[in-house]
Structure formats: structure tokens, C-alpha cells
UniProtKB/TrEMBL annotation:
Residues 24-123 form the SH2 domain. GO terms for molecular function: guanyl-nucleotide exchange factor activity; phosphotyrosine residue binding. InterPro entries: Ras_GEF_dom_sf, RASGEF_cat_dom, RASGEF_cat_dom_sf, SH2, SH2-Ras-GEF_adapter, SH2_dom_sf, SH2_SHEP1/BCAR3/NSP1. It comes from Notothenia coriiceps. Residues 140-287 are annotated as: Disordered. SMART domains: RasGEF, SH2. This is Breast cancer anti-estrogen resistance protein 3 isoform X3. The keyword Ion transport does not apply. The gene is sh2d3a. The keyword Manganese does not apply. Residues 401-664 form the Ras-GEF domain. One of its GO terms (biological process) is small GTPase-mediated signal transduction. SUPFAM superfamilies: Ras GEF, SH2 domain. It holds the Pfam family SH2. Keywords: Guanine-nucleotide releasing factor, SH2 domain.
Length: 675
């Protein structure tokens, strides 16, 4: 077991692009064995296809039943001599299978629209692939003995028959090869009986022996190999007076002897089964058609109706895309205009027929307007961190539980990030439908800076709440306990990962982590909260920072945007990480997923904010506005200073407050002995 464990660890240490390095890949695991591993909805694994060697199958469990989807392999040939291999189910294509699985697991996208199957719980292997291969080899031998009769019938139909020397006037050709030119199109076709649809036409098929002819010689025909040359795939009856046979009984057939068929057969049909109107439906008997084991995937044509979307769709479906021979095949778009016809666009009103492209506006001014901000809690010309305002805020927060506070933070975050309440004028200025898309674009720089500003101010507010508690250590641990519960409410109740990461950032500040007495009191007085923070919230936050969205279960209202914002604003979030480029790739892929599903985030946020489970409090909403935090921390005049100067001064204030709560104990130095 130790050697197997070590071998498995070596496999899992391979590159993440290598399918072998992922524990949810089970190699040649059979369909029945895969189904026996599933227990609940969302379970999944990837295995090799038994019916199409070289392809992969996603096996999953959904709605109390197993499902199997063959992963479609696409070969792009944009120019001669160059090809690119991609993998997909119905929509997005990826360079490798692990990237495809990460996309569907992290984004909770259904594998197919028809089934609605969603995968999120991987079934991992506990042994190396070598052991699985050996087990499947042993099981296949036992299965072959059980199904011996069926396999014997198949072998008799597929193996090459020899022709008898007693019947020199005919050639018995049972299994013509699928050909391309003068060579077999695929070595896997040797020994297999092709369908009439993919072989030559019926007029070119010649059976060498008549079925009703009685044979005088009832003895077994001697086995004799056929030696042949030429480019024709089918043989005609051999004349009586041919050249002598070889000593072993073989006959040499040459293209110049007139022994080959006089007319070249047509090439095999190249039809796509992706479009049901082009060919008859395939058989659904699983003994005849192994593909019936798989659930149907329908490659989707984009349904968007915009002019730009239509151009993109036409370009996509007219590209030189090919699927491998073991899967399906695309035809050229211009040759199948009827099959590849885009869906008809709905009629639009007359006023939008004159639509024209308008360049998005590049914002250069922050959305936080201090000159227009009117406060209910702050006096005019307030000073930084006024004690009366801090006391009023503490009483305000004590009157609200963690869930209500989280909903107020969600409301303000959605306004700043432009997730809800986005007007048509804002969409026209941005050029996109939401801030989740704008932050990924070059002209979204101002919004990225505003979001980073808000994120840091939330963290500073949490730090002030802890360090401003000058009571006993037990009282500070209670404040810490409430803030951890707020982080949990932001994650599980408000589904707001933006503010959740800000609270977690505050709890990880050096001025907070050094309060050993406070953390010790938290573990003693609020043990469950301390365990929640250490065992669940911190690992969850680390996974988010690594760009791993698979830890997010269920829909979200505001995604985790901070790593992307830092990367696009020049602050490298992977500078101190050992993963380097892979981490940066995961961060960008996570941002791409957020922009792609922006409408889902908007809809979920709108549902939460209009559910009626909370009643907005104007004072509490103001307390979470960014303009309020700017004036509270730096006063009326200091709030307009540069960001770097403000942050540097406030960091010094936090350090002073932290040292006052738990002073650093200086160990007296022992006098050096006199020499």
C-alpha cells in the first residue's frame, strides 16, 4: 500500500494540464464500475471511452440517476499545416480536459441544456492508474467469457475470410476496408465490418460466393493470404486462367492485370450527426450502437440577437472546424447553409434599425463624490475618528444582527460595483451591461480603483472596531466573535464575497494578529467561533485568492474580484506565490467566468435585495458608504488627500492603537560579564 500511495502521489504531482494529475480521472474505468461509485447528485468523474478509444467520457450522477457525456474533441485548422485541439460539451471550448472540467465545476454550468446536470463533487481515485488498468483487464477477460457467444458471432463477421482453391472463379470478400486513397483511413478499421453508409455504394459491392450455390467439396478451405497492390479497395472475380498461385496458396493481384474493379467507388460519406435533418437517426439498440450509452449533447448556436453577436456566430460556424473521426464531423458552413442556418432574428422596432456603434466613455473621476455627500451621522467639518461618532456607530451595530448588517453591506456593494440599479445611460457610457464586465476591460480602470478603495476602507473599519475597544480582553474577544459571525453571514447569507474578503483581510492585518491575549480569549470564551474561523473561513479565503471557484457552492451575488483588480492595476497578487503563472491564469479564468455570468450575479443580487427579509435602515446604509468612511477616518479636509498618504498615516494610527492594547514586552538584557 505504501508503494501504491507513493506512485499515486507521483501521478498527482504532474502538471495540472495533464489529465493524469487529477484524481477525478479514472483511466479505463468501465461504465458499470463508474456508476457504482456515485452516491448523490453532483458526483462526477472522467474516464476513457470504451467504444471510442482516444476519447473521454464524463460520468456523473444527477436526479437520482447516472449520466454519461462523451467529451467532444474539436480539431481547428485555421491554416494549412497547423492544427489546434479543443474540448467542449455544448458551448465553450478549452485547450484541455482539466480546463473544461474546472469551468463547469467552478461556474456551476449545466453540462447540457436538456439534462441540466451540474457537477461539483469529484469522485477521486485512491490507487494509481496502473492498478485501474490491471483491474479492468482482469474484468474484461471475465466479461468476455460470459458474453462468449456474442463475441464469437462478432469475430466471425469481422475477421478476414480465406478463399478456397477449389473455387478459382470467385473471391470471397467479406470485410472491405474503409479507405482514403490507397491506404486504410484508420488502422483501427482493420478487422472491423463497416456500415454500408460509410462504405462504398451497393453497386460496387461484390460478394464472392453465392449463398444458394452447393459446394461439391465439403472439406475446410485452406487458409491462404491475399497479396494485393493497386488503389482500388474492392476485388472482382478472378478469371480461371490466372498466373500460378504461390506455394503457400496465396494469389498475387496487381492493378495492371485487369483483376480489379473497372470503376473507382465513391469516397466514404462525410456526414454530420450533429444536425438530425441531414441523415436518418442512428439505431438506439445498445448492442448495435455503443453511442446510445451516452446522453445527448447538442452543440448550441448562439441565440443572441445583437448585430455584433450575429457576426460572431457567423464567423464561429464558418470556421474550419473538424471533429475527430472517433467522434463527429463538421461540414464546411458554405456547403451546408441549410443545416447551419442561424436562427431567425426577431423583428425590431423602427427606431433601433439605425443603430450604430458608440465608443464607450473612459471615466476619469471617482464615483465617490465627497462634495455632494450629506451625512446623517457626521457633523460638518468633522475631525478624524471623532469619539462621539464612533460611539453612535457601535450602538447602531449592536442593534442589528449579522444577517441584517450583511444585507446592508450587500446593498451598497452592488451599487458601487454596478451590479444592480444600472441605468441605460450608465450602460451606454460603459459599453457593457454591468460593472462585472467593465472591470475586465481597459477603460474600466476608474471602477477598479474605486472598488479597491472601498475594499480597503471596509477592512480599516473592521480594524478600528477591534482596536477601538479599550475595555477588557474579554470584551475585545466578543467584538472579534461578532465580526467573525459577520464574515460568515456575508459568505452564506448575503453571498457577498467582496465584503467577505474585506473582513477577512482586516482579521489578517498585523495589528490584529499580534493581539495574542484577545485571540486566546476568543478560543476560551467562543470556541466554536474560533474553530469556524480557523478551519472553514480561512481555508475558504485562501482558495478564493488562488482563483479556485470550485469552493463556492451555489449562486453568488458579488464575486471575489480583488485578485483581478490588483493584477490589472499593477499590484501583482501572485508575487509571493509558488504557483506563479498558473495562479495568475486561474485568477484571470475566474474573472472571465464572472464577466460571462454577469447576468446571473445581477439576478441573484436583485432577488436577495427585494426578498423582503430585511428592512433598510438609512443610518446603517450610510455607515457602509465609502464617502462616510473617507470622512470618518480622515476628516472633512483630510479625505481629499492622496491615497498613498492617507493609507500610510492611518496604518501608523492602527499600529499605535494595537501597541496600547497589548504592549510589547521587552525582555531586559543581561549585562555582559566583565573580562
Amino acid at each position: 500500500m505504501d508503494s501504491l500511495k507513493k506512485e499515486l502521489e507521483e501521478e498527482l504531482k504532474l502538471s495540472t494540464d495533464d489529465l493524469t494529475s487529477h484524481a477525478w480521472y479514472h483511466g479505463p474505468l468501465r461504465r458499470e464500475a463508474a456508476e457504482s461509485l456515485f452516491e448523490r447528485d453532483g458526483d462526477f468523474l472522467v474516464r476513457d471511452s470504451n467504444s471510442s478509444p482516444g476519447n473521454y467520457v464524463l460520468s456523473c450522477f444527477w436526479k437520482n440517476g447516472p449520466m454519461h457525456f462523451k467529451i467532444i474533441r474539436v480539431i481547428l485548422r485555421p491554416k494549412k499545416g497547423y492544427s489546434r485541439e479543443l474540448f467542449q460539451f455544448e458551448e465553450d471550448r478549452f485547450d484541455n480536459v482539466p480546463a473544461l472540467i474546472r469551468f463547469y465545476v467552478g461556474g456551476r454550468r449545466p453540462i447540457s441544456q436538456a439534462s441540466g446536470a451540474v457537477i461539483f463533487n469529484p469522485i477521486t481515485r485512491s490507487v494509481p492508474l496502473r492498478v485501474i488498468i490491471e483491474r479492468q483487464t482482469d474484468s474484461s477477460s471475465s466479461i468476455s467469457s460470459v458474453k462468449g457467444a456474442d463475441r464469437e458471432k462478432y469475430n466471425q463477421a469481422s475477421k478476414r475470410r480465406s478463399f478456397s482453391s477449389a473455387h478459382n472463379d470467385t473471391l470471397q470478400i467479406i470485410n472491405p476496408l474503409l479507405r482514403s486513397g490507397s491506404q486504410p483511413s484508420n488502422l483501427e478499421n482493420v478487422g472491423r465490418r463497416p456500415s454500408l453508409q460509410s462504405a462504398q455504394s451497393d453497386s460496387n459491392l461484390r460478394t464472392g460466393v453465392q449463398q444458394n450455390t452447393k459446394q461439391e467439396d465439403t472439406g475446410p478451405a485452406p487458409i491462404s493470404p491475399v497479396f494485393r497492390t493497386g488503389s482500388e479497395p474492392l476485388l472482382s472475380p478472378r478469371p480461371r486462367h490466372s498466373r500460378p498461385a504461390f506455394p503457400g496458396g496465396g494469389v498475387t493481384l496487381r492493378g495492371s492485370d485487369g483483376q480489379l474493379h473497372t470503376r473507382a467507388p465513391p469516397k466514404p460519406l462525410r456526414v454530420s450527426v450533429l444536425f438530425p435533418n441531414s441523415i436518418p437517426p442512428p439505431p438506439r439498440d445498445r448492442n448495435v450502437d455503443p453511442s446510445s450509452y451516452y446522453d445527448e449533447l447538442v452543440v448550441q448556436v448562439p441565440q443572441k440577437i445583437g448585430h455584433v453577436d450575429r457576426l460572431r456566430a457567423e464567423e464561429k460556424w464558418q470556421s474550419r472546424a473538424r471533429l475527430t473521426e472517433t467522434s463527429f464531423g463538421f461540414l464546411e458552413a458554405e456547403k451546408n447553409e441549410e443545416s447551419l442556418q442561424l436562427p431567425a432574428l426577431p423583428q425590431k422596432k423602427a427606431e433601433v434599425e439605425d443603430w450604430h456603434f458608440e465608443k464607450p466613455h473612459v471615466e476619469t473621476v471617482s464615483c465617490f463624490h465627497l462634495d455632494q455627500f450629506e451625512s446623517l451621522l457626521l457633523p460638518e467639518n468633522n475631525r478624524p475618528l471623532e469619539p462621539g461618532v464612533l460611539l453612535a456607530l457601535k450602538e447602531l451595530f449592536n442593534r442589528s444582527n449579522a444577517d441584517i448588517t450583511a444585507m446592508h453591506m450587500l446593498s451598497i456593494d452592488c451599487q458601487v460595483a454596478r451590479i444592480v440599479g444600472v441605468t441605460d445611460e450608465q450602460k451606454r457610457i460603459m459599453g457593457v451591461g454591468s460593472g462585472l464586465e467593465l472591470v475586465t476591460l481597459p477603460h474600466g480602470r476608474q471602477l477598479r480603483q474605486d472598488l479597491l478603495e472601498r475594499h480597503h476602507l471596509i477592512a480599516l473599519g473592521v480594524a478600528v472596531d477591534i482596536l477601538g475597544c479599550t475595555g477588557t480582553v474579554s470584551q475585545r474577544s466578543t467584538v472579534l466573535h461578532k465580526l467573525i459571525l459577520l464574515a460568515q453571514a456575508l459568505k452564506d447569507h448575503a453571498h457577498n464575497l467582496f465584503s467577505f474578503s474585506a473582513v477577512m483581510k482586516a482579521l489578517d492585518l498585523p495589528q490584529i494578529t499580534r493581539l495574542e491575549m484577545t485571540w486566546r480569549a476568543l478560543r476560551r470564551n467562543h470556541t466554536e467561533t474560533a474553530v469556524l474561523f480557523e478551519k472553514k473561513l480561512k481555508p475558504f479565503m485562501n482558495m478564493l485568492n488562488d482563483g479556485d471557484d470550485s469552493v463556492v457552492h451555489g449562486p453568488s451575488a458579488v464575486p471575489h474580484l480583488v485578485p483581478l483588480l490588483m493584477a490589472m492595476e499593477g499590484d501583482d497578487p501572485v508575487e509571493n506565490s509558488e504557483r506563479g503563472c498558473q495562479l495568475l491564469f486561474d485568477v484571470l479564468q475566474s474573472a472571465r467566468s464572472a464577466a460571462l455570468h454577469a447576468q446571473d450575479y445581477q439576478q441573484h443580487a436583485h432577488t436577495l435585495l427585494t426578498a423582503g427579509s430585511w428592512e433598510p435602515v438609512p443610518e446603517l446604509l450610510e455607515a457602509f458608504r465609502t464617502e462616510f468612511a473617507l470622512r470618518l477616518f480622515w476628516g472633512q479636509t483630510g479625505a481629499t488627500a492622496s491615497r498613498e498618504e492617507r493609507y500610510e498615516k492611518f496604518d501608523m494610527i492602527l499600529s499605535v492603537l494595537s501597541d496600547k492594547l497589548e504592549p510589547v514586552e521587552l525582555t531586559p538584557q543581561q549585562p555582559e560579564p566583565l573580562t
